[in-house]
Amino acid sequence: MKIYKYIISITMAFLVASCSLTETPPFMSNDSAYATLDNARSSLDGVYNAMVNYGDYSHQFLYLTYGNSGFFVSGKGNRNTQSDNVHLCSLQPLNSTPHLERVWKQSYQAIGRANDIIASMKPIDNPANSDQEGMNDVLGQAYFLRAFNYFNLVRLWGDVPLRLAPTLPSTINMPKSPSKDIYAQIIKDADIAKTLMYPKGKERKGYPAAEAASMLKAKVYMTLATADQSIQPDPNANYWQLAYNEAKEVYGKYQLVSDYATLWDENTDNTVESIFELQFNEIQASNYPRLFTAYGATEGKTWGRLKINPEVYDLQASVYPNDPRIAQTFISEYFNVKRNKLVKVYPSTNRTYFGNGFPYLYKYWEKNPKNTSNVNNKNFIVYRYADLLLMLAEISNELQNGEQMGYVTQVLDRVGLKPQAEYYNGQEGFRKAIMEEYRFELLGEGHDWFNNRRRGYQFFRENVIVPHNTAPTFNPKIDVTLLDNDESVMHLPIPASEINTNEDIKN
């Protein structure tokens, strides 16, 4: 049984069912919603509830970003010709794609709820007691979550509407804001969050500490460091140095779990490695394991809709043949309890048809074959310490401060590996190796879409698109061909529903 749950109070229950951008704010009158710390925390849980919804991290956000990352294909329908592979997984999503529509809508719902908290609460200078500190934490969390959701939106779509106040019917129409302005707001929100959220060691179980806002800022600065100057809030800033400063505020305050496999144990949540973890429970259950667990692997109804392109497995197996992370990341054979037979897929068997041509992601696999439920209550780790260490390694390589190998070594020591030779091949060699290391360590953890594109189109093309399309294992009867077009693959199209309802947006 989990100690912490996102549970909405009875007076907030209608909030769970609502999906409208124009939820009438505030959800309760300000007198009751923020009169006590418990009520304020219930309002905050409404923001988190939007993020663990089916339209976001419980399913649709993962399906959209994994499928469009260049690393995954869809097993829905068990055919390589079905629409999600033809469009989404080949980097050609339509603006009417349901997954795209839902993620947009759910992200703005979370932002809308955060906006209501921000509009209704004021920071308390020099809080005099624990309740006042808690009120500040609630407000800080709202700023953090608004920044987090806008960071997802601006990277996925580029210019988007920047809504900073509770949405009313009169403000439904809003034009897109330049990405430069959105990044500036994300940085501003994260700065405020850092001053208000509980610091590490004082945070509530299941909620991020202020250090999560520092990690968010570090990721923002890393994104801006390789971005076009037109979207940089300050083109003269040294964004690598700024990223380093933020990442160092997190360094040493968390630690790696001793066993990599522990991270994917269905009975283990909120470990010492977790920096930001979305909480699921019996009331708000995780739907996402169904995406990754093959049909028939449990007594419940699983889908196995997301499968991994074979060259992703092949690269890790060739660079680190004895990497224990491989067994925790990929699964290529399982017992089908419904058909009473052992099923093998790549690389345990040759690729003869679509159904056996791809390994599954094992991290989120439903590991109890007797589970009869369609869901479980496994949390989703958004930020963890290993990612922070790899970030510091990449940043240090760009700054050439001599620290980069130390951070990589910490990550690889856990799994008993020595850094690959490419790390010692100068700055460019290290850059190539560290970008691969993100893949080996973090595959399928919500970062692939962003890391693959963060260094620009040319990097995405040379390290993902071309290696996939020209892989020795590529079979046009099984595999999708990734679109090679810089004007199309770097951002998602604005959803048709937004264009149809927002008169200030045309495309």
What does this structure look like?
With 507 residues, the chain is mainly alpha-helical. It is built from 20 helices and eight strands. The strands form four sheets. It has a two-stranded antiparallel sheet with strand order 1-3. Strands 2-8 form a two-stranded antiparallel sheet. Strands 4-7 form a two-stranded antiparallel sheet. Strand 5 (333-336) and strand 6 (341-344) form a beta hairpin.
Alpha-carbon distance between the two ends:
47 Å
- Which term fits the overall shape? globular
What string gives the helices and strands in order? HHHHEHHHHHHEHEHHEEEEEHHHHHHH
Name the average pLDDT: 92
pLDDT under 50 segments (min length 5)?
A: 7-20, 24-29
Approximately what portion of the residues adopt beta-strand conformation? 5-15%
Rg over C-alpha atoms, rounded to the nearest angstrom = 22 Å
Task: Furnish the topology, listing elements before pairings.
Elements: H1 13-17, H2 30-33, H3 37-51, H4 60-67, E1 72-74, H5 83-88, H6 98-120, H7 130-157, H8 179-196, H9 210-225, H10 239-248, E2 274-278, H11 289-292, E3 306-308, H12 310-319, H13 325-329, E4 330-331, E5 333-336, E6 341-344, E7 360-361, E8 380-384, H14 385-399, H15 404-414, H16 426-442, H17 448-454, H18 457-469, H19 486-489, H20 496-501
Antiparallel strand pairs: 1-3, 2-8, 4-7, 5-6
Helix pairs in contact: 3-6, 3-7, 4-6, 6-7, 7-8, 7-9, 8-9, 9-10, 10-14, 14-15, 14-16
List keywords for this structure.
single chain, 507 residues, mainly alpha, two-stranded antiparallel ribbon, 20 helices, 8 strands
